[in-house]
């Protein structure tokens, strides 16, 4: 260290400010040559990957772009993938939160029922579940009657002409529809969402519920107005993952079978035109686009429900320095 640098750190020296505070530290950052080596290796690998994409004509990017714009593919994207995901997640989230609340109930019967539900649907692969809905349920029950419980037996015993049946569902026709697939995926998703919601509710301090009860809130109102809003900070990230996973799981609707689905339509076009790889590229591109949009939505929701916990970027409203004024 030179004599000039030493004198600059001493009070009264030429480099020391008049208020006696020490001057700026003349420090140099620690060098990390390994980082530069890793960067070079990554850049080389990325360049090789891009080169293989550009020079290999078998990818068929132009054909894939044409497949992406065909009407059957767009219809499958809208109905089978987007509507299927939204419907399944709506059923899964609502039913999952209800099952989570039942799982945390003080009633042992409700806790047992919710446990059996999560155990059953988490133990069955979705492909097997959809296959059972598509063919097995119709084989077991070709129709389902909605009406008074034991109405047919009661009418037969009393000798009445009406059997108290209000509506009859033809299971063989219903089990091959998109709605049946959405219900099947929603029932399966509810088991996973129940565990996510239960973890989120348990993450909220018990004092919050006690404070709500002290204010005169009922248990249900305290859950809706106090506990669940705070639990959303924990629930939103895994729910975003489940939503993105559901986008991909809609390809399982072919087990119903539902043909208005993205992967089924692209595969059919690829098989018919012998453009297998471009068809795979087209369906991959659509899944990446939908997943990217959902990731942006998840990021915005995480920012909204993570306010005040210091994990997200500060909002403009609270980013003003002290004394700058404003709300």
Automatic annotation (TrEMBL):
Database matches in Gene3D superfamilies: MetI-like
Record flagged with keyword Transmembrane helix: yes
Domain of life: Bacteria
PROSITE patterns for this protein: ABC_TM1
Region span, Disordered: 1-27
The keyword Hydrolase is annotated on this UniProt entry: no
Mode of membrane association: Multi-pass membrane protein
Alphabetical UniProt keywords: Amino-acid transport, Membrane, Transmembrane, Transmembrane helix, Transport
TM spans (from-to): 36-56, 76-102, 123-144, 164-188, 279-301
PANTHER family xref list: L-CYSTINE TRANSPORT SYSTEM PERMEASE PROTEIN TCYL, MEMBRANE COMPONENT OF AMINO ACID ABC TRANSPORTER
Record protein name field: Polar amino acid transport system permease protein
Protein species of origin: Terracoccus luteus
């Amino acid at each position: 260290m030179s004599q000039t640098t030493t004198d600059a750190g001493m009070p009264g020296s030429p480099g020391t400010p008049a208020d006696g505070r020490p001057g700026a530290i003349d420090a140099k950052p620690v060098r990390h040559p390994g980082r530069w080596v890793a960067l070079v290796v990554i850049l080389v690998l990325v360049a090789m990957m891009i080169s293989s994409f550009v020079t290999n004509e078998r990818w068929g990017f132009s054909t894939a772009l044409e497949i992406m714009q065909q009407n059957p593919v767009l219809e499958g994207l809208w109905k089978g993938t987007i509507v299927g995901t939204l419907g399944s997640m709506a059923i899964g989230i609502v039913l999952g939160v209800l099952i989570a609340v039942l799982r945390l109930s003080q009633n042992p019967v409700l806790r047992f029922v919710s446990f059996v539900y999560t155990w059953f649907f988490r133990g069955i692969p979705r492909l097997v579940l959809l296959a059972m809905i598509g063919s097995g349920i119709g084989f077991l029950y070709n129709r389902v009657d909605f009406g008074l419980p034991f109405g047919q037996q009661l009418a037969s015993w009393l000798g009445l002409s009406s059997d108290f049946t209000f509506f009859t569902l033809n299971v063989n026709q219903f089990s091959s529809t998109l709605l049946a697939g959405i219900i099947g995926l929603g029932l399966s998703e509810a088991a996973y969402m129940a565990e996510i919601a239960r973890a989120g509710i348990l993450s909220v301090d018990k004092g919050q519920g006690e404070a709500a009860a002290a204010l005169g809130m009922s248990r249900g109102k305290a859950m809706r107005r106090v506990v669940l809003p705070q639990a959303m900070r924990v629930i939103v990230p895994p729910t975003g993952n489940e939503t993105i996973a559901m986008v991909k799981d809609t390809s399982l609707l072919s087990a119903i079978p539902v043909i208005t689905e993205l992967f089924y339509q692209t595969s059919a076009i690829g098989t018919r035109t012998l453009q297998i790889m471009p068809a795979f590229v087209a369906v991959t591109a659509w899944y990446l686009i939908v997943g990217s949009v959902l990731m942006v939505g998840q990021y915005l929701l995480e920012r909204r429900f993570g306010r005040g916990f210091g994990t997200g970027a500060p909002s403009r409203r609270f980013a003003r320095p002290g004394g700058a004024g404003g709300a």
